[in-house]
Write the structure tokens for this entry.
Amino acid sequence: MLYPSVDSLKKKVDSKYSLVSIASKRARQMQEEKNMRLVKYVSDKNVGKALEEIATGVLINEVADQNVVYEDEV
């Protein structure tokens, strides 16, 4: 069985797409900057570590403000 499970992760993030996006961005950040937010990880790979951070609540998905208009949306 995989840790953390997809079911437990979906309780923290609204969709599988968001989960993949957040985990991949955090994994890339860990690879480049070598900054870790947890003391101990079960996984050896950065993607697994990012998923563990999401499962523990250390890494959260911030909802974008719907009232903000970006330059490329005008």
